[in-house]
Each structure stands twice: as C-alpha cells, then as structure tokens.
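We modelled the chain as a single entity of 122 amino acids. Its sequence is:
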Amino acid sequence: MKNLVDDGRPIFLQIAERIEDDIITGGLPEETQVPSTNQFAAFYKINPATAAKGVNLLVDGGILYKKRGIGMFVAEGARSKLIEKRKKLFYEQHVATMIREAKKLGITLEQLIELIRRGDEK
C-alpha cells in the first residue's frame, strides 16, 4: 500500500482510488480479498470509519462485495468496469479540455495530434 497524498480531496476518496488503482494494475485480482477497513486504518493512521466509507463507496459501485464473516472481495468484472469509468473520466477531464483550449488558440486537429506525438516521444 502506498501512502495517501494530501491533495485536498477527502481521505475516503483517496482510499477508494488506491483500491481502484490496485485492481486496474492487477495488484488486486478479481475474486481476491482486499485488506480490512481496520488494516487500512492502521496502515494510513486514519479512523476506521473513514476507511470504511472509502470501501463502501466501492461496494455501492459494484467493485467490491462482502462475504459475510470473511471480508471484502473484488467483484468479477470490476477491472473492466473501472477501466471504462477511468477512460470516460480521462476524456472529460483532459481530452475535452485540451480540445477546447486548442480551438481557442487556433490549433488544428492535425497540429494537436503532432503535439501529442511530440510529447509521447519525450
């Protein structure tokens, strides 16, 4: 587990995002158990209720599910669901914003593609 970053976002959102990242990268494969809220709380030195709020956010989204008396597990299909969610978010937060700014600056689509290629080479 990585440390949380104080980026102004609520800690429970950062917990949920860390779990999502681990699912996307394969660190938490589908149908494997995730750390308990008490383990998250101890590791990050936060209130267990805060950790539970982050975990429950993922339960509500169908990413995690509870096995009574055992713990939380990664749901089947969670990785693909998260990748689609993140792609949509990436488009909304980065691509659409970049295209709007390029249009304001008179940058053509071809020029924008060239700028992206140049950036990818570095």
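As a brief sanity check on the tokenised model: The mean pLDDT is 92. The CA atoms of residues 110 and 116 lie 10 Å apart.
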